[in-house]
Amino acid sequence: MGRKLHCKGQGAMTPGIPIFSPMMPYGTGLTPQPVQSTSSLSILEEQQRQQQQQQQQQQQQAAQQSASQQATQGTSGQTPQLFHSQTLTTAPLPGTTPLYPSPMTPMTPITPATPASESSGIVPQLQNIVSTVNLGCKLDLKTIALRARNAEYNPKRFAAVIMRIREPRTTALIFSSGKMVCTGAKSEEQSRLAARKYARVVQKLGFPAKFLDFKIQNMVGSCDVKFPIRLEGLVLTHQQFSSYEPELFPGLIYRMIKPRIVLLIFVSGKVVLTGAKVRAEIYEAFENIYPILKGFRKTT
Amino acid sequence: MSGGGRSRCPDCGCAELVEDSHYAQSQLVCADCGCVVSEGLLTTTFADEGHLQEVTYSRSTGESEQVSRSQQRGLRRVRDLCRVLQLPSTFEDTAVSYYQRAFQHPGLHAARLQKKEVLVGCCVLVTCRQHNWPLTMGTICALLYANLELFSGTYLQIVKVLGLDVPALSLADLVKTYCSSFKLFQASPSVSVKFVEDKEKMVSRTLQLVELASETWLVTGRHPVPVITAAAYLAWRSLQPGGRLTCSLSRFCKLAGVDLPHPAYLRVQELLDILLRMAGQLAWLRILNLDKQTVVKHIGDLLQHRCILLRQAFRDEAEEEEGDEQQQEEGEEAGSSTLEMPEKKRPASSPPPLLPPCMLRPPKRPCPTPADSRVTGEEDISDSEIEQYLRTPREIKDFQRAQAASQAGTSAPITS
């Protein structure tokens, strides 16, 4: 942590010549990591075999390997993508022996599969799902508001009925055209169940409601990486994706291209992911961002 | 007024048009009835102006050549704002070009006047940021009498739409500019001699304190100005603690002639906490049992040795991950410096981690872990569950009666 400032007196209104390198504001010393090439499948396999308790030792290799991911981050996060879909779906790959010694850590005892060190071990939790469905018939909102207990309708404020049910705890906006928006569910299945319950309520109120074109429009997830993040450094190295304006909002807005997700990253290490249409996009986005965030963990 | 194409006479509909000229003026005359179809086109318009018909301004070529009045006004505002801020002339041209580019976009072209006003400020801000001129959004909003929310929305929109690369606010330059605006460098009727301070010393100490704050996570995610205010306050007090220890933050801001940002109180406390911890690492200060007032006297010393003190005072969590052996090495290394000989004899309580304040505070409410519900989405929905959401006929009647009564109640005073 060397001293970074050499103060020269300059006029107040003429900061013309930047005394401090504009690219390095306070306290962001980034040590670029050596880039190592990863061969695709062999490493994926062996890491699936390693024990979770060994994660600390493998943080080292993960940090080095993450540099290669970091290098490819701008274009496509393909390596983590490939890897992650494997962990999610099936267990051992055909034709591989479980006792695959790792060249990286010769001291690692081999035990059956648990999430590997490549992945963060943290799973984002879904917080909100927004879905839409078409009930397929015109609705009379006044009647619905009159005959349903859980409905509110204020046409001067908003042109839809706001209906809520307790289980799953959700809110729906029901429009006179028959389209409905359902928000607040914590999983895709819950959202579908809730939408069906709303449709059933509308049916019981006397309308010929159907359940057409159910579609999930947006999913929001959140998680905590449990270490502080130097947002100023992150915005420097990932300028084309990030937007960090502390005068406006305390978090950094990271627009990932593949998958197309927006992440809100805060200094406390909490990350909010939004804009996904399927759950896998959220997981993939987090696996893409985790190595980048780990790179900003050290302060020097 | 419509007529057909130029090929037909509007009067008799004849297709035979002859190019004839009446002295110097060229005319297009119908061969049959002799009516003058068009003469001497003076203006260039879109293809079918024909027959001296009226053409709306938006369809004529005049519109694309001229700059619209609203855009002209906006460009004038940009130049005015640059002059008020005393920016170099090159900034003006850049800001004007950004405004012109932004104006092409349909979303901003058709925006409300209020938004176009704010757009002026956004263009100037982007220009200043790109030249590392420290200008805060608060300043621009104050000059334009604009709402910060509208400003932030427009600013983010324009950065995205124009694909601009805007560097971060340069904190060091902001410190210098902000501190130079204080009115503490000369004695005046409101500022007595004991409060006057040398500008160079004050600016340099404030810079050091701001750098300390940014190393200890007090700057990330927070608005920069309150941190600078807090640092300037502490720096000013520490340069002459004799007469200034009793001066409060609000009094300091009044003397300096700047607004007091509310978060500055918290930042002062946080900075003092960090300084107290650092002071605990210096043997000759530990015996003094410093508190938040008295530590100000020693800020100079603490800043001089801040690198080492920080490393000792706080455990760096990231480095712990490297392995246990390295952590022990850390402790040894820190203890080897001459200042810290007595350190090794300290009790075994480990130093607190260096974390942003939001991570150090206990969580406000426990995060509920969601129940692992096996919902498939296709379950049967029982009738009774749905019935609970429907009103009984009795309830409906009651509700309607209540509604009618309330409406009668509200309408009665109007009619009477």
UniProtKB/TrEMBL annotation, chain A:
Keywords on record: DNA-binding, Nucleus, Transcription
GO cellular component: nucleus
UniProt-annotated location(s): Nucleus
Gene Ontology MF annotations: DNA binding
Keyword DNA-binding: yes
Biased composition (Low complexity): 49-99, 107-117
Identification of the protein by name: TATA-box binding protein
Lineage: Eukaryota, Metazoa, Chordata, Craniata, Vertebrata
TrEMBL record, chain B:
Bias-annotated ranges (Acidic residues): 318-333
Domain of life of the source: Eukaryota
Location(s), subcellular: Nucleus
Biased composition (Pro residues): 349-369
Listed Polar residues bias regions: 403-416
PROSITE patterns found in the cross-reference section: ZF_TFIIB
GO biological process, one term: cellular response to oxidative stress
Entry keyword set: Activator, Metal-binding, Nucleus, Repeat, Transcription, Transcription regulation, Zinc, Zinc-finger
Subunit structure: Component of TFIIIB complexes. The TFIIIB complex has two activities, alpha and beta. The TFIIIB-alpha activity complex is composed of TBP, BDP1, and a complex containing both BRF2 and at least four stably associated proteins; this complex inhibits the transcription by pol III via its phosphorylation by CK2; YY1 facilitates the TFIIIB-alpha complex formation. Interacts with TBP; this interaction promotes recruitment of BRF2 to TATA box-containing promoters.
Name this polypeptide is given: Transcription factor IIIB 50 kDa subunit
Higher taxonomy: Eukaryota, Metazoa, Chordata, Craniata, Vertebrata
Record gene name: BRF2
